[in-house]
UniProtKB/TrEMBL annotation:
Keyword terms of this UniProt record: Oxidoreductase
Binding-site positions, FAD: 16, 35-36, 235
Species assigned in the record: Microterricola viridarii
Taxonomic lineage: Bacteria, Bacillati, Actinomycetota, Actinomycetes, Micrococcales
Assigned protein family: Belongs to the flavin monoamine oxidase family.
Cofactors: FAD
Amine oxidase domain location: 16-447
Residues holding substrate: 341
Protein name in the entry: Putrescine oxidase
Gene3D superfamilies: FAD/NAD(P)-binding domain (3.50.50.60)
One GO MF term attached to the UniProt entry: oxidoreductase activity
Length: 453
């Protein structure tokens, strides 16, 4: 058994934990980062298969993500714009393929009017929500007691309008059916991006990518910490008192520290045994959080053939197996890559199939957007975060009905010497790398203020 002493032990080497660790070292404190996986990056993961770079996890940068943009600049990492020239594709409930530009789908005029009205109405309500504390809104409990599905049904009788508004929040972001999360949770999702309009605008929310991949952020942050990052060290026990903590890993490594930061998805908090147990309130809080589920599909082709047809690669349909897809061609790559997403109940369904059947079904869906050529990629890969031992879902955890107003204010409240830091608990940048960095900075600043006086 090996024992080391540090000021702070950080559990989890994703963007949030590594940001906190770097901020703490800048403040003159010593750290140890314990990571269960054999890599850093958490829910960001860039890998290479058959010579093709695949962004298995989070990858996009939007213009409002100041924390991420500042970090990229500090680390010397470059970005490039997502390809978006040409027309987008929409498939309606009858399976008709329509081309369009702009943000509003090419639906019948009365549905278009409803979409615009609903977006405007949501923007007004979202503007009242403080993303850092949505539970403080005067109507928070009311909004948290109704599902997003219920709100949509009360807001409009137009089914196609409901289906499309639901797509932006449910399938595309929270990755749960709209009957499974509250209206307040939906408002937080929009408020975290600045407005509902931002979520509708793919050119904004999916603006740029990182040259070399988003995992490069974590790799660069980890390099600055050197030997203070310990891979393959899942923490099994966390002993704590007002005097400090002892983190014990599966291999027997012990880190004695004054403070601990849990920088992992909240669904993994229960994988650690706490001595003494966490207070009842935290146990209850954590049980009301669950991950969504989405498959990220990567299809690589000899060339980005859709561009020759004048298509941007951007495609949407709440009626397709792959509800959205984009041109995901890598920087200076002669090959063309499409990325599609299969979410919540659709993802459940295809995982009941064999791998070959699932691949055929998904590629068939992509062909509805891009044509028959989409069925024949030279390389195909599915990111299944639901099967990842140290993640167990995607993109992030969200509260069940009533949970956000009941427990949200305490999700980051420290328990003795234990603090919590992850993108799941972010306000601005919720469930994004930007939010992970923001929370990591804030958590580190609070601990440094305590320990340094």
């Amino acid at each position: 058994m090996t024992a080391i002493e540090r000021d702070v032990v950080i559990i989890g080497a994703g963007p949030s934990g590594l940001t906190a660790a770097n901020e703490l070292t800048k403040a003159g404190l010593t750290v140890a980062v314990l990571e269960a996986r054999d890599r850093v990056g958490g829910r960001t993961w860039t890998d290479h298969f058959d010579g093709h770079m695949i962004e298995i996890g989070g990858q996009w940068v939007s213009p409002d993500q100041d924390a991420l943009l500042d970090t990229l600049a500090e680390l010397g990492l470059e970005t490039y714009s997502r390809y978006r020239e040409g027309e987008n594709v929409y498939i309606d409930k009858d399976g008709e393929k329509r081309l369009f530009t702009g943000d509003i789908f090419p639906v019948k005029p009365e549905t278009e009017a409803e979409l615009i009205r609903l977006i405007d109405e949501l923007d007004v309500i979202v503007a009242e929500i403080d993303a850092e504390k949505p539970w403080a809104h005067p109507r928070a409990e009311e909004y948290d007691s109704i599902t997003f599905k219920h709100w949509l049904e009360e807001a409009t009788a137009d089914q196609e309008a409901r289906d499309n508004i639901s797509l932006y929040i449910g399938a595309a972001m929270i990755t749960k059916p709209d009957h499974a999360f509250s209206f307040l949770q939906a408002l937080l999702m929009a408020a975290s991006a600045g407005s509902f309009t931002h979520l509708v605008d793919a050119d904004f929310i999916l603006d740029k990518r990182v040259v070399g991949g988003m995992q490069g952020v974590s790799i660069a942050l980890a390099e600055r910490l050197g030997d203070d990052v310990h891979l393959g060290q899942p923490v099994r026990t966390l002993r704590w008192s007002e005097d400090g903590v002892v983190a014990i890993t599966a291999s027997g490594l012990e880190v004695h520290a004054k403070r601990a930061i849990l920088a992992v998805p909240p669904v993994l908090f229960s994988r650690i045994s706490y001595e003494p147990p966490l207070p009842r309130h935290q146990h209850q809080l954590h049980q009301h959080l669950s991950m969504g589920f989405v498959i990220k599909v990567h299809a690589v082709y000899e060339t980005p053939f859709w561009r020759e047809a004048g298509l941007s690669g951007t495609a949407f349909s709440p009626y397709e197996l792959s509800h959205e897809a984009y041109d995901n061609t890598n920087h200076d790559d002669p090959f063309g890559t499409l990325v599609g997403f299969v979410s919540d109940r659709n993802a459940d369904g295809v995982f009941e199939l064999s791998a070959e059947e699932r691949k055929a079904r998904i590629l068939e869906s992509l062909s509805h957007y891009y044509g028959e050529q989409a069925k024949n990629p030279v390389f195909y890969y599915e990111s299944d975060w639901g099967s990842e031992e140290w993640t167990r879902g995607a993109y992030a955890a969200s509260f069940d009905m009533g949970g956000l107003s009941r427990y949200g204010a305490d999700q980051r409240t420290p328990v003795g010497p234990i603090s919590f830091s992850c993108s799941d608990f972010a306000g601005a940048g919720y469930q994004h790398v930007d939010g992970a960095i923001r929370v990591g900075r804030e958590t580190a600043a609070a601990i440094a203020a305590e320990l340094k006086g």
